[in-house]
Amino acid sequence: MPSSVMPTSKRGDGPQPSATTPAAVTAVGLRKSYGDKTVLDGIDLRIPAGSVFALLGPNGAGKTTAVKILSTLITADGGQAQVAGHDLATDPQAVRAAIGVTGQFSAVDGLITGEENMLLMADLHHLSRREGRRTAAELLARFDLTDAARKPASTYSGGMKRRLDIAMTLVGDPRVIFLDEPTTGLDPRSRHNMWQIIRELVTGGVTVFLTTQYLEEADELADRIAVLNDGRIAAEGTAEELKRLVPGGHVRLRFSDPAAYRSAASALREVTADDEALTLQIPSGGSQRELRSLLDGLDAAGIEADELTVHTPDLDDVFFALTGGTGRTDKKGTTVR
Amino acid sequence: MSSLSLAVRDSSTMLRRNLLHARRYPSLTLNLLLTPIMMLLLFVYIFGDVMSAGMGGGADRSAYIAYVVPGILMMTIGGTVVGTAVSVSNDMTEGIIARFRTMAIHRGSVLVGHVVGSVIQSVASVVLVGLVAVAIGFRSTDATALEWLAAFGLMALVALALTWIAVGMGMVSPNVEAASNNALPLIVLPLISSAFVPVDAMPGWFRPIAEYQPFTPAIETLRGLLLGTEIGHNGWLAVAWCLALSALGYFWSKAVFDRDPK
């Protein structure tokens, strides 16, 4: 069962390296339901200040609801939480003063220009006129929006809107930043740009709480990852710890020559054979060493496979593992010829 | 920063945002001005002679111009705030409102910005329609500076009251179409008030409805101020209506805004 695979973080006890650093976000038993549909069913979190935390989960897992509660947009039905040292329920205004939020849907004012959006934020953070102009110009330049600054935000592309959105969030130097699926809907280049932006934020000492559907993204960015499934945290840990939970890593060999297939099946150990498709699956973490020993074995036996695919665990595998389902066949793999 | 100065500062920021919208996209405001101006021209130039004769003013339509203009001005306010309901509803569907909710700003400033912006637009619209009225021959009858001031004060108060109601209508409307439908009473009520014909000329069973709905006392008070007709109890009634509608609209809008967004 999920919780027995890896206990979720408990405050105070357990040998966590981060237990001594101050927490930017803590939550105990957060619950939320809409009608009789339970969206969050008791969430515990502890996010050390200055780290990146990823909440990973499929659509409908409750990621957005968690962000909405922690960013004071909606109230929880139960449980309690502190953000930047302030209680959500008793002092939401202090929480708001410390956070920046970029939601899943564009939170820019499309009717006014990018620059006007930035100045609006500066005014709402009560910056002086000069300071506001300076901050707006700096952030617009940093997010590569200077050329588009005088155009209405509604004319921006998806990537530009997302960049403006984040630039607006950064006015007022928030200490804790919530990013709800920051790269969903972005093309690969914009996505990598966004990752770069997030890395730079963390260098500046802020805490980033992001949600994502992609293990790869969490892997790239996050110090710790929690997997949210059906309103509960199914597992929590570093990317490496999570991947270790998943038995899905293997190498797959495909043959067109039945004779080569048979001799490979007998030469290799621990193989799962599929006689009809003429494929062999060998459990493997995909490391260079493991691959070399496999290839050496094939070479020694004089066998040549038509195709070799390395399958690495992804979010689906993590989910199947954590929810006790069965594994699945190759959908995503890296092909080596 | 004290909470009052925070409220004032954030509200004026929100007001600037709304005025910027209105300036950038004036078509909605201008479209809403067309209805009262067309009604004014229609009733003066097409129906004017008949109306004037029917009211005992002779075949000269100038008497009817004087009668209908205060009604048209109130109708202008009703029409302008329909635009408010639409723009509030539109605004609430935008992601930026969610952003405002997660910022340490005065919570009511979003609504106050809309309200003040809408009152300013209403007064500007009234002035524009008023200029058209003067151009076609409307003149006040010896109104003093104080009466002019009171007339503007009354129209601003009516605009405030109707705006708060319109904001509430906009808040509960899931989309722009619903908002403009929900705000329809603000267009229809002037038509069944004393704007175009005196209440006395209406069927007996209908008179109480026409006489005590919010527009009639306001129109009669405005007539009294500009044309020297009898105001009577209409003055108090108009102020009472305005205060009651403002309070109702304020608490309604605030309650809806303070709810968790979906």
UniProtKB/TrEMBL annotation, chain A:
InterPro entries: AAA+_ATPase (IPR003593), ABC_transporter-like_ATP-bd (IPR003439), ABC_transporter-like_CS (IPR017871), ABC_transporter_ATP-binding (IPR050763), DrrA (IPR005894), P-loop_NTPase (IPR027417). Residues 25-255 form the ABC transporter domain. It comes from Streptomyces lavendofoliae. It comes from the Bacteria. Transmembrane segments: none annotated. GO terms for biological process: daunorubicin transport; doxorubicin transport; response to antibiotic. Pfam families: ABC_tran. The keyword Cell membrane applies. This is ABC-type xenobiotic transporter. It is a peripheral membrane protein.
UniProtKB/TrEMBL annotation, chain B:
The chain crosses the membrane at residues 25-47, 67-89, 110-136, 148-172, 184-206, 235-253. GO terms for biological process: response to antibiotic. GO terms for molecular function: ABC-type transporter activity. It holds the Pfam family ABC2_membrane. PROSITE patterns: ABC_TM2. Keywords: Antibiotic resistance, Cell membrane, Membrane, Transmembrane, Transmembrane helix, Transport. It is a multi-pass membrane protein. One of its GO terms (cellular component) is ATP-binding cassette (ABC) transporter complex. The keyword Ligase does not apply. Residues 27-260 form the ABC transmembrane type-2 domain. It is found in: Cell membrane; Membrane. InterPro entries: ABC2_TM, ABC2_TM_bact-type, ABC_2_transport, Nod_factor_ABC_transporter. Signal peptide: none annotated. This is Transport permease protein.
